[in-house]
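During the reporting period, our protein records have gained a structure token line. One record among many is quoted in full directly below:
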Amino acid sequence: MESKTGNVKEEATRYRLVQLSCENVTVTPEMAARWLADNPHNRAIRKERVDELCETILSGKWKLNPPIEVFDTGRLWNGQHRLTAIVQTGCAVELRVRVLKKEENVKHN
């Protein structure tokens, strides 16, 4: 059910997202790296943002943020900067993780 073009607007109109679960998870650097590896068609990483997040993690000031979002297939939808910071610091961090499923939008006449 992936978009052939990778166009986010096309995906947003073609599919509807259904939440399957949302829970707190201790995300290890290894888990973060796996999700980042399946992150096609996302915007460029902003180094400044990752640096800020790394500082927050390393200073012990990390707080739960809005959830990162992954599809039931493992593909990352939202959270690449937080996951990149986890990989760079080598620290496990508690995140809210929302698992989504795509369903075809059906138009009724």
